[in-house]
Amino acid sequence: MSCDSVDRREVSQTVNDNSNGNGVFTSSRPFLVSQRLQLSPNTEHIPDNYDDLQLEFSPSVFRSLERYLPPNLLSVSRDVKVQYIREILARYLPEGERFQKLRRYRQQIISRYQPLHRELYTLNPGKFFAPSFIKAVSGNTEESLRSIISEPSPGIYTFEMLQPSFCELLLSEVENFEKWVNETKIKIMHPNSMTSYGAVLDDFGLETMLDKLMEDFICPISRVFFPEVGGFTLDSHHGFVVHYGKDWAVDLGLHVDDSEVTLNVCLGNQFSGGEQYFGGIRCDKHMNTRIEPEETLDYSQVPGKAVLYHGHHRHGARATTAGHRINLILWCRSSVFREMKEYQKKNSSWCEWCQHEKKERQLQSVSATKLELFKMEESRV
Ligand SMILES: O=C(O)CCC(=O)C(=O)O
Ligand SMILES: [Fe+2]
């Protein structure tokens, strides 16, 4: 089942790059603030005109909200502003209405788009996955999974997953879809507010296949490695591809995903650079805290190979310096976990900063108690 559609908040929450304390993770992309409006308008700014666009809210709403955009977004293209403002406005639509809208949007695309490789639309493990991956998941034990999984840094799991022939087919399907979008001039939604270069696979018919992939192949892994965020109850996803290179995005700033667990698989092609970097797991409250040296990891993308991580494991992508890199991303969510509001708790068991603060508090309290005891001893002597 997929109810990602109800929740089109697939906006990565971005971390202010300057606040990580080491200055390594800078990015040339403009999306370096959380997706919010400013408290007061920039009265000097002259907004764009939105009259020619068919939008679900009046053009005047876009014009007036534009003045409230974060300063670094005031000068980006109108398309990017539209996307940003639309996603903020969508939060105010009743949930049912949002769901209907997304269903209609998908229906419109699916009824018009002719898939190139129909065999991609039904999950076929033998054709899609590496035999070692199928064997490990069918084993369904921590031991069988660990036999194919590496953990280059705590909480980051990598493994061979997709067959080269599947990657090629999916790349060709995405290319075909994007060509069709260009030809028909249909307006499609970007994967999220940080990523304008890419396509949402769920929007053109791959939702059911990806749902099955998550349920049958990712859940068994996240059940073992991510129980703290409901890894055994993943029940919806947001699936998309992202493009990097000269004609696409260059890099991606440090951020967390709107997911409990994220699967990221490189599909190809030939490229240099584009490493994914990581900087520790943080809850919303501690997103801007510094990265500890032991939390950093640079992971080089290899076609067919997957990386699986906690959605709040901060990460970004280094510049793809040559060629074209395309990755398949699956943001996996658990409605049970979200319902429990576990991630809004004061102290998240999985946030490394919350745990660090908790330890500090315990140490302080032990020292204070010791000091008091010492004072009492002193006064008795
Ligand atoms: O560049 C990548 O592979 C990571 C993309 C990513 O983190 C995202 O789209 O949320
Ligand atoms: Fe991400």
From TrEMBL:
<keyword id="KW-0847">Vitamin C</keyword>
<keyword id="KW-0479">Metal-binding</keyword>
<keyword id="KW-0408">Iron</keyword>
<dbReference type="InterPro" id="IPR044861">
    <property type="entry name" value="IPNS-like_FE2OG_OXY"/>
</dbReference>
<dbReference type="GO" id="GO:0016705">
    <property type="term" value="F:oxidoreductase activity, acting on paired donors, with incorporation or reduction of molecular oxygen"/>
</dbReference>
<dbReference type="GO" id="GO:0031418">
    <property type="term" value="F:L-ascorbic acid binding"/>
</dbReference>
<keyword id="KW-0732">Signal</keyword>
<dbReference type="Pfam" id="PF25238">
    <property type="entry name" value="OGFOD2-like"/>
</dbReference>
<dbReference type="GO" id="GO:0005506">
    <property type="term" value="F:iron ion binding"/>
</dbReference>
<dbReference type="InterPro" id="IPR006620">
    <property type="entry name" value="Pro_4_hyd_alph"/>
</dbReference>
<keyword id="KW-0560">Oxidoreductase</keyword>
<dbReference type="InterPro" id="IPR005123">
    <property type="entry name" value="Oxoglu/Fe-dep_dioxygenase_dom"/>
</dbReference>
<feature type="compositionally biased region" description="Basic and acidic residues">
    <location>
        <begin position="1"/>
        <end position="11"/>
    </location>
</feature>
<dbReference type="Pfam" id="PF03171">
    <property type="entry name" value="2OG-FeII_Oxy"/>
</dbReference>
<dbReference type="GO" id="GO:0051213">
    <property type="term" value="F:dioxygenase activity"/>
</dbReference>
<keyword id="KW-0223">Dioxygenase</keyword>
<feature type="domain" description="Fe2OG dioxygenase">
    <location>
        <begin position="235"/>
        <end position="334"/>
    </location>
</feature>
<feature type="compositionally biased region" description="Polar residues">
    <location>
        <begin position="12"/>
        <end position="23"/>
    </location>
</feature>
<protein>
    <recommendedName>
        <fullName>Fe2OG dioxygenase domain-containing protein</fullName>
    </recommendedName>
</protein>
<feature type="region of interest" description="Disordered">
    <location>
        <begin position="1"/>
        <end position="23"/>
    </location>
</feature>
